[in-house]
C-alpha cells in the first residue's frame, strides 16, 4: 500500500473517512473528494498527521464536469492513479409511492451515474499505465432490498451490474492472462483470517483472476 496513489470519493466522513485513515496509516498518497469544503479540509488535516501526501478535491458527483476535473486533478497531484474507491453516496428514505423525480435523480445521479463516470475517467488513465484497481462500495440493499429505499436499492443494484459490464468491456484490453499462483490465494486467506475481515461472514470469496466473471 505504501506509495499507492488512491482517490476516495465521499472521503470526508463515515466509511470513506475511515478508509482514508486506514490507507494514510499505511503510507498511501491520497486524494479525498466531497461537496463540503470544510469537512474536506478538516479530514485532510487529520490525514496529514499520518501522511503529509494527502489532498482533497471539492466535487459534486452529480456533475460529470466535476468528476472529470476531480480525476484529472488527482492524476496531476499524485502523478497517476492506482486505486479508485467509489464510496460517495446519498440516501433519501421515502416510501416508493412518495419518491419524487428530484429524489430519484439525486440518488441515482450520485450513487450510480457518479460512480460510472468516475470509473470511466480513471479507467482511461489506468489503461494507459497498464495498472489500476476500481473498488465500488455498494450495499447489502443491492441484494435484498429494504423498506423506504427504492431509489437507493436501485442505485446500488445498478452499481453491481455496472461492475460486471465495465469488467466485460475492458477485460479484452487488460486481461490478467496468467494462471494463479499460491501467493494469489494467500493474500485473500490472510485478509480473511485478520481482524480486517471481522464483519464478513457466510460469504464465498472467489480468487480466480476474473474467470467466473466472464
From TrEMBL:
Task: Give the source's domain of life in one word.
Answer: Eukaryota
Q: Which residues form a coiled coil?
A: none
Give the Gene Ontology MF terms in alphabetical order. Answer: oxidoreductase activity, acting on the CH-OH group of donors, NAD or NADP as acceptor
Q: Which InterPro entries match?
A: NAD(P)-bd_dom_sf (IPR036291), SDR_fam (IPR002347)
The UniProt entry's sequence similarity note says:
Belongs to the short-chain dehydrogenases/reductases (SDR) family.
Protein name (Swiss-Prot/TrEMBL): 2-deoxy-D-gluconate 3-dehydrogenase (2-keto-3-deoxygluconate oxidoreductase)
Give the organism the record lists: Rhizophagus irregularis
Classification lineage:
Eukaryota, Fungi, Fungi incertae sedis, Mucoromycota, Glomeromycotina
Amino acid at each position: 500500500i505504501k506509495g499507492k496513489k488512491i482517490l476516495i470519493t465521499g472521503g470526508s466522513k463515515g466509511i470513506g473517512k475511515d478508509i482514508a485513515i486506514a490507507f494514510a496509516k499505511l503510507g498511501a498518497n491520497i486524494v479525498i473528494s466531497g461537496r463540503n469544503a470544510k469537512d474536506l479540509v478538516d479530514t485532510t488535516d487529520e490525514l496529514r498527521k499520518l501522511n503529509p501526501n494527502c489532498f482533497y478535491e471539492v466535487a459534486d458527483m452529480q456533475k460529470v464536469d466535476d468528476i472529470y476535473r476531480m480525476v484529472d486533478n488527482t492524476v496531476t497531484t499524485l502523478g497517476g492513479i492506482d486505486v479508485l474507491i467509489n464510496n460517495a453516496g446519498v440516501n433519501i428514505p421515502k416510501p416508493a409511492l412518495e419518491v419524487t423525480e428530484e429524489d430519484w435523480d439525486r440518488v441515482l445521479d450520485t450513487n450510480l451515474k457518479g460512480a460510472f463516470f468516475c470509473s470511466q475517467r480513471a479507467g482511461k488513465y489506468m489503461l494507459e499505465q497498464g495498472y489500476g484497481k476500481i473498488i465500488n462500495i455498494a450495499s447489502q440493499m443491492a441484494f435484498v432490498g429494504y423498506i423506504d429505499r427504492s431509489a437507493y436499492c436501485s442505485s446500488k443494484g445498478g452499481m453491481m451490474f455496472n461492475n460486471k459490464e465495465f469488467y466485460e468491456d475492458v477485460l479484452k484490453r487488460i486481461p490478467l492472462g496468467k494462471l494463479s499462483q499460491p501467493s494469489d490465494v494467500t493474500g485473500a486467506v490472510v485478509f480473511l483470517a485478520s481482524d480486517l475481515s471481522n464483519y464478513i461472514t457466510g460469504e464465498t470469496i472467489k480468487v480466480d483472476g476474473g474467470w467466473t466473471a466472464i
